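Data availability (excerpt). All sequences and predicted token strings are deposited with the supplementary files. A representative entry, 8-amino-7-oxononanoate synthase, is shown inline so that the format can be inspected without opening the archive.
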Amino acid sequence: MCDLADEYGALVMVDDSHAVGFMGETGAGTPEHAGVSDRVDIYTGTFGKALGGASGGYVAARQQIVDILRQQGRPYLFSNSLALAIVAATITALDLVSGAADLREKLFENAAHFRRRMDEEGFELLEGEHAIIAVMFHDAALASKIADEMLNHGVYVTAFSFPVVPRGEARIRVQLSAAHSPEDIEACVDAFVAARTAVEAAI
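Structure token line:
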């Protein structure tokens, strides 16, 4: 993408809401992970997700771009400022993330563990290394039934179907954490297996 932008004189924008905080050597996100941090013109993201779940988001870019967005961006013009407590908490979260290499390593170990075990149990996963992992069921009703059944086994997950994802690509999204233990991951895999068995038996 960056090569194409250079060739055609375009700007590169990355919405990194699902990667800031844990992707990249310092948690700076996808461009750092891909080694192109200095080639991205506009970064957008959220102060939620890996940064703690608070409200608000950000645009990081050259001053000229930020000035244009401040004058022309309707969502910005009609929004309220963040509460000072959220600003302070977000700054602290950013400081913590920059020094959390051990937690990032643990997170990716947990994701790899979950992927390996789910593959062994015959589940279809979207490929990748991200800690938010899609378990594919394709059928919306099936994904919903599996998610409901998993709650009976003590695991809360959410099923996604059209229009959130394309038709025929219904899935359950699992979000791993550095706080999960190997036992937690095994319990989640066991819940998937039990839920699949129960739903298949009921069909």
